[in-house]
């Protein structure tokens, strides 16, 4: 009972609280944030945990991305920036995760093996970051449903499974959010488009028996995770795949997923580790290829009148500024499409 009491304090409260606590989403309808630009979600805890020097996970990139978007006028405080006001509720998390696992993570009681699989040193700051990343994804989806499109400055923790974390992913924000919008009755069908270079094995496993969720996953075949899950549609790409072959495969897969499944909401994991310079990649997309990819996905989905929420996904580079620039492509392209479609 001690663990339950402790972890409950980390969450956003009861289901009754969860609808009202996404105040940014409800205010979207009141103040019409479409008049002020593409809704963008950020929370200071995204980059809060301090990692050991030389750690491979680029924890500081989320703040760097946020600051870059402000400098470039894509994100304007007081206009189109939104911050989650609460942590996800316990009920929201348990729709996608095992209670024992969630409780153990929140109080720092995971065993050494489970912690090594995640790859991030536990701290209270990491708990705060993990919970707010999930709530940021929830908020981004809420804003997309209200406004047509919204972008997060983090998110896409697709390696987190129901009962364990993996590959720097602890709680699966995509699965939690899909389950939440479905449980609320906001939509009946959710399409998760995962274009991170690594297959989203956790997401695919969590939703594999839920026919209300379709996962389209294009990834490098010869990369982590070595044991792949089975998504609704997997597009396994050879190492070295470049812009044109990549675009052709994604365009075909996306078109067929939209026609077959007819989603009412798209959650888009726009990992930039597909870039040719990525430290953990394997594919060979150029800067132009990233721009073409984001334009393809966003324009195709918006053109069909489907709300889309975007998340930055993975990206690995010792040059954090260069990595933030790659991530920012999503927000720049999204803003252009958002404004041109008068969403």
Protein described:
There is one protein chain. This protein has 343 residues and is of the alpha/beta class. It has helices at 2-10, 15-21, 23-31, 61-71, 90-94, 99-106, 112-118, 124-147, 173-183, 201-206, 243-261, 287-303, 320-340; strands at 40-41, 81-82, 149-152, 190-194, 213-220, 233-237, 265-269, 308-311. Strand 1, helix 4 and strand 2 form a beta-alpha-beta unit. Helix 8 (124-147) crosses helix 9 and helix 11 (243-261) packs parallel to helix 12 (287-303). The longest helix is centred in the middle third of the chain and has 24 residues, at 124-147. The radius of gyration is 18 Å and the shape is globular.
Strand order of the largest sheet: 2-1-3-8-7-4-5-6
Beta content: 5-15%
**N- and C-termini, Cα separation:** 48 Å
Number of helices: 13
- CA gyration radius, whole angstroms: 18 Å
* Molecular shape: globular
Biggest β-sheet: count, sense, barrel?
8 strands, parallel
Comma- or semicolon-separated keywords:
343 residues; alpha/beta; eight-stranded parallel β-sheet; 13 helices; 8 strands; 45% helix; 10% strand; globular; disordered N terminus
């Amino acid at each position: 009972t001690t663990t339950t009491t402790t972890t409950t304090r980390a969450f956003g409260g009861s289901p009754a609280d969860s609808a009202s606590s996404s105040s940014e989403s409800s205010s979207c309808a009141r103040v019409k944030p479409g008049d002020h630009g593409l809704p963008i979600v950020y929370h200071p805890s995204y980059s809060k945990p301090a990692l050991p020097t030389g750690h491979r996970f680029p924890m500081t990139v989320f703040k760097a991305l946020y600051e870059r978007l402000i400098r470039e006028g894509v994100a304007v405080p007081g206009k189109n920036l939104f911050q989650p006001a609460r942590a996800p509720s316990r009920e929201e998390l348990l729709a996608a995760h095992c209670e024992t696992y969630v409780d153990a993570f929140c109080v720092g009681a995971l065993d050494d093996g489970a912690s090594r699989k995640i790859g991030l040193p536990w701290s209270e700051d990491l708990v705060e970051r993990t919970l707010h990343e999930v709530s940021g994804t929830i908020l981004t989806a809420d804003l997309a449903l209200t406004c047509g499109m919204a972008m997060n400055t983090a998110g896409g923790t697709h390696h987190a499974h129901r009962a364990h974390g993996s590959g720097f992913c602890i709680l699966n924000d995509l699965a939690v959010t899909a389950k939440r919008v479905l449980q609320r009755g906001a939509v009946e069908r959710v399409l998760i488009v995962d274009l991170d270079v690594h297959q989203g094995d956790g997401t695919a496993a969590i939703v594999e028996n839920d026919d209300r969720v379709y996962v389209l996953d294009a990834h490098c075949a010869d990369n982590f995770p070595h044991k792949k899950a089975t998504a609704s549609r997997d597009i396994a790409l050879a190492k070295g795949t470049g812009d044109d072959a990549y675009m052709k495969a994604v365009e075909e897969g996306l078109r067929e997923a939209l026609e077959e499944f007819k989603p009412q909401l798209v959650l888009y994991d726009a990992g930039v580790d597909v870039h040719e310079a990525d430290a953990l990649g394997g594919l060979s997309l150029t800067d132009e290829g990233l721009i073409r990819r984001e334009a393809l996905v966003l324009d195709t989905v918006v053109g069909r009148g489907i709300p889309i929420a975007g998340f930055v996904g993975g990206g690995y580079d010792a040059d954090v500024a260069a990595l933030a620039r790659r991530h920012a492509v999503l927000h720049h392209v999204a803003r252009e499409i958002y404004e041109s479609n008068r969403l």
